Amino acid sequence: MSKEKLEIIKEANLSNNCPECFNQDLNLTFYQKHTCGRFFYKITGELSNKLVCNTCHSTIYPISWTDDIERMFNYYEKTVIPVKKSSKPTLLFYSLMLVLIALVAGAVYILLSNAI
Question: Which of 6, 46, 58, 102 is the most exposed place for a label (fewest CB within 10 A)?
Fold first, then answer.
């Protein structure tokens, strides 16, 4: 079972009006998904975002965005530079491979010593 984690890659404060409380204190955050399993740590290319009003603490969904908010979102979406997709083995993977190599080497040694 792998654990999923959203890493913040960009945050921006917007001066647009909130559709709920009409204050000008919005926070736009972009996330990138990272998964951590037993054998591999993966950085995926999956991006997500969240727009929150800092005054009323409500999440503003795209259905209620105004044209100004959408324009600012499109601008900041173009400036986001995600981390490259990658996959790294964990220490458990390396130790398992070392044990398997040792077992195979031991089996080959025993077979060759019995053949002589």
Answer: 102
pLDDT in tens, the chain (116 residues): 678 999 999 999 988 888 888 888 899 999 999 999 899 999 998 999 999 998 888 899 999 888 999 999 999 999 999 999 999 999 999 999 999 999 999 999 999 888 76
Q: Is the pTM value of this prediction over 0.85?
A: no
Neighbours of 104 (CB within 10 A): 10
What is the three-state SS of 35-79?
Answer: EECCCEEEEEEEEEEEEEECCCCCECCHHHCCHHHHHHHHHHHHH
Q: How many domains does the chain have?
A: 1
User: What does the alpha-carbon distance between residue 55 and residue 23 come to, in Å, rounded to a whole number?
Assistant: 7
Q: Is residue 29 part of a domain?
A: yes
Domain that holds residue 17: 3-89
